[in-house]
């Protein structure tokens, strides 16, 4: 699988409705994973979306999720650019360049879902997510 670059949208509790709407608009296949599937992080979050992916026949990929508990939803913090794939060397290289001179909010390390994942903001203020897919994931 080649690496994928796409927008990642954050929502204030209505990610399911938003992602279902985008599916109506663009068509394609929608996969939604809840916080509850990975252990509920807080009251009322079991059915909220931890990660959603819409993949369309036109070649679009749109990802989105509900913000974790305690995270403020405000214009400007409701998106990131996601880079993902299986080429660990290339993706770690992107991470090193993107995080260099910026700030790291989630270190690039193995997460509860099994992939290596990190979040940073580059020196220009753009938020990035890097996910290195692990075999079997």
Automatic annotation (TrEMBL):
Residues 6-130 form the Glyoxalase/fosfomycin resistance/dioxygenase domain. InterPro entries: Glyas_Bleomycin-R_OHBP_Dase, Glyas_Fos-R_dOase_dom, PhnB-like. This is VOC family protein. It holds the Pfam family Glyoxalase. CDD domains: PhnB_like. Signal peptide: none annotated. It comes from Streptomyces marokkonensis.
């Amino acid at each position: 699988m080649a690496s994928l670059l796409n927008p990642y949208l954050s929502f204030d509790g209505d990610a399911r409705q938003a992602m279902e709407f985008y599916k109506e608009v663009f068509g394609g296949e929608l996969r939604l994973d809840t916080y509850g599937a990975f252990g509920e992080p807080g009251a009322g979050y079991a059915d909220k979306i931890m990660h959603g992916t819409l993949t369309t026949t036109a070649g679009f990929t749109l990802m989105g999720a509900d913000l974790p508990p305690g995270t403020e939803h405000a214009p400007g913090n409701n998106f990131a650019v996601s880079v993902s794939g299986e080429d660990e060397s290339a993706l770690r290289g992107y991470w090193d360049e993107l995080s260099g001179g910026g700030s790291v909010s989630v270190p690039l390390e193995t997460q509860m879902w099994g992939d290596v994942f990190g979040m940073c903001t580059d020196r220009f203020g753009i938020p990035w997510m890097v996910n290195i897919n692990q075999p079997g994931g």
